[in-house]
Structure formats: structure tokens, C-alpha cells
Amino acid sequence: MKTFVIGDIHGAYRALRQCMDRSGFDYKNDHLICLGDVCDGWPETKESIDDLLKIKNLTYLLGNHDFWALQWMLTDEAGNDWKNQGGIATIESYSGGHIPQNHINFLQEALPYYMKDNSLFVHAGIDPEYPLEQQDLTTFLWDRSLAQKALKCYSKNSNSKLSPFDAVFIGHTPIPFPKPIHSCGVWLMDTGAGWSGVLSLMDVDTKETFTSDAVPDLYPGIKGRTPSKS
Fold it and tell me: Coil, helix or strand for 138?
């Protein structure tokens, strides 16, 4: 069994398939850790979740866009903030308005974070000053402070450690690089698949990375999610 981690998919099913095919991912035997935000942006959220549900050994972490999408699935209420940040594409991906119960279960059962050995996987970030059990979902889903510190370390070529973990893998904060970067013990995995970038999949042990084509090229004529601070 190999263990892989993948960044924010944002409805880009075609990019997801490219990453899986290019890595030779084994749906029956390999382990995939998904950092969240399968929802919102490109037009194939439903297809993306269908594909993830085929993976026998999947660890799915809740993203902030997944949180918003789940609220819509449960209440049929769609706020303008969410719709303007890719939610419309998620709604339209469920043509006819039918949402499979296993898709709702999938998001309801998503984890706030995941530990493997002494590596931490989380959607947005953590506060390294406090134990994980003392932190809330808002930090895990929205906080960018760890990512911002890691990017600052990267620009300064610093070797300092930002957390007590051997490695922290995060999505949420897109980076202007075609592959994930490692900085001060943090792996930034969101390579911009939500709009003009690529989707990245990494072998956790070897750090070999597999990327999709630029996502806009996979969806010609379709505009992706508008970059924002959310």
C-alpha cells in the first residue's frame, strides 16, 4: 500500500482523474488522504465525489467549501457568499436537484484533521501553540496563519520549524507554484486547481508529485472559482 495526499479539487474531476492515472493510484490497495474542498468551482463536484467514493482506503478531511456545501445539502439554503465563491457550480452539478444520500454522508463523516505517525493532515491550518484538542473547526477549516508563516519562511529560505509535528500537510491557501512546496516543516498542497492552477497529488513517503494539466485547459470556455480570502 502506498499513501498519497491530494490538494483542493474544487469540482475539477478531469484534473482528479489525470492525477490518479498519472500516479498509477490503486483504488483497492492504496491510501488517499484528501485535504478537503472537493466542492465548489469547476462543474463536476458530483463526479469528483463519486470517484472518491470508489477508493477503499480514503481519509477525507472537511474543507470550508465542503462545510458550506453540506449546509446547502441539509437545508436547501444557499447564501450568496457561498454561491459567489463556487457554490453555483456545485448546485448545478446535481442536475435535477437530487443529492445522493451517500454524498451527504461523505461530507458529514469528513474528519477535522488526521494524524499518521507524527505527520498532521488538515485543510487550512492549526495554531501550533495549542494542543489540537483545544482548537476548533474554524481554525482547521479557515485559518491561514500557518500557511502565511510557511510562505514567509520559504521566501527567506529559513529552516526553522513551525510546529511540533514532523510534517504538516495543508490545502486551502493556494500557492503560485506548479507543484507543492515544503517550508519549515509545512507542505503547502493547494496549487490553484480552484481557478488557473493545477491539481497536485503527492506520494507521502517518497514525495514524488503528480500534477494535472492547467485546470482551465481541461474545462475550455468555463470560468473557475473567483479567488478570495475564504
Answer: helix
